[in-house]
Design a protein that fits this description.
69% of the residues lie in helices and 1% in strands. By secondary structure, it is mostly helical. Helix 13 packs across helix 14.
Length: 427
């Protein structure tokens, strides 16, 4: 998790080399994806856990990944402007509540708008505290989380526990159900992919199952989320507005000296950040469950922040991280015990490969630790037929810790991320 600091950015290393490691090239990313597909297919064939790459599992993973991805996208906007947003969880909570509140009374799209506005309100509070008053970003974010939980708990008891709301199924901890937003399916393609998946051919059926889950019964709000990822990339990396915004997160003093209104761009970024998180919360209450439930976010705001860090503050990497966490989250919905048990074998292979790589790099202590853990996981796999439900429920959080620990060496956060900035420093 990124932390606030008031120390200046470190100077570049001498010799003309970049301080951080270069990003993975597109062919390398494709090669990694292909290797992952082959590994998943091999695990499915060896263990017989057909649900690992089934269309239903992938569809559930996509549904679980969207709110995580939107929260991470919110964190990306804020941190690219130099503001750490730990308050994503609270902004998601506001999105779930106000989305469901407006959704059951009118229609779900009005609920989506209300959820976005609720998250933007949380973002505005965070911007006022951090940008205008210079409050520590972490403290402000935690305060937003606590405040959002208190507000929604109070208004849920006030609005959902009496009158028409109570008659339609409301209670102090949940809202009445809202209508469905609707889904889309590619006609013909979905059935064709389903027929291929049923043959259980090595790799071919696995690819068909994955593609089938991505084109069957996809929520319209999921389509909106995908478009927001594309739009974010274009705005932040292909437009002059995005260049100015990112300059506020890299060197706000230099940006101000060039005429950039740093306060304005930070405000815009943090408010947009809250809106993205609020949209993720509205997705949970209007698409995933159709109702607001107390504690509905379940830490997804924090996981979204972890996905953003895993993605190295880039939309593409963030999308991959959200997909990974969504896949882990979806395992508990579909025969989780046996599926997670099968994935232990994949974890053994990954840890063994990591041990060999560390040994090649002469990092012998890290190689030995990876090898010992691989042996322990292998013994666990061979000695059991399933894993406890408690571990299945904790899988998303375990994956979060593992991924962050393994990817920590490749991270390169914005240089001024979390730094206090006062207007006039660049003059």
């Amino acid at each position: 998790m990124s932390t606030a600091t008031s120390t200046p950015a470190a100077p570049k290393a001498s010799g003309g080399k970049k301080a951080g490691k270069s990003r993975l090239s597109f062919p390398v990313v494709l090669l990694i994806i292909a290797g992952g597909l082959v590994a998943l297919s091999a695990v499915r064939a060896i263990t017989g856990a057909q649900d690992i790459t089934a269309a239903g599992q992938i569809g559930a993973a996509l549904s679980m990944a969207v709110p995580i991805g939107l929260a991470g996208l919110g964190g990306l906007w804020a941190e690219r402007a130099g503001v750490v947003n730990i308050g994503l969880e609270g902004m998601m909570i506001l999105g779930t509540f106000f989305g469901a509140w407006a959704g059951w009374q009118t229609n779900p799209w009005i609920g989506v708008l209300a959820g976005v506005l609720g998250g933007m309100f949380g973002g505005l509070l965070h911007a006022v505290a951090t940008v205008t008053f210079g409050v520590d970003h972490i403290i402000s974010g935690i305060a937003i989380n606590i405040l959002a939980l208190g507000i929604t708990t109070y208004f849920a008891k006030l609005w959902f526990n009496s009158g028409e709301a109570a008659a339609k199924g409301g209670s102090p901890k949940q809202s009445p159900p809202a209508e469905d937003i609707g889904t889309v399916t590619l006609p013909g393609v979905s059935d064709w992919l389903s027929s291929i998946e049923k043959h259980h051919w090595f790799l071919v059926s696995d690819v068909a199952g994955i593609l089938g889950g991505l084109v069957s019964n996809v929520s319209l709000l999921t389509v909106v989320a995908v478009l927001l990822f594309v739009l974010t990339f274009w705005v932040l990396w292909k437009s002059s507005f995005g260049l100015r915004l990112r300059s506020c997160g890299e060197n706000p003093i230099a940006a101000e000296s060039l005429g950039v209104n740093v306060y304005k761009y930070k405000y815009i970024a943090v408010i947009v950040s809250g809106g993205m998180a609020g949209l993720g919360g509205a997705f949970l209450s209007l698409v995933t469950s159709h109702i607001y439930n107390e504690g509905q976010t379940g830490g997804r705001g924090y996981i979204g922040l972890a996905a953003m860090i895993f993605g190295n503050w880039r939309p593409g990497g963030l999308a991959m991280g959200a997909g990974l966490f969504g896949f882990a989250d979806a395992l508990q919905l579909r025969n989780g015990g046996s599926s997670v048990h099968a994935l232990l074998l994949l974890l053994v292979v990954l840890l063994a490969g990591l041990a060999l790589w560390k040994a090649y790099k002469k990092a012998y202590i890290a190689a030995a630790i990876s090898a010992v853990i691989a042996v322990g996981v292998l013994i666990w796999y061979l000695g059991t037929d399933s894993v406890p439900n408690e571990f299945v429920s904790a899988t998303p959080y375990v994956v979060t810790l593992l991924v962050l620990s393994l990817s920590a060496q490749r991270l390169r956060m914005p240089k001024a991320d979390g730094m206090r900035y006062r207007k006039g420093q660049g003059k």
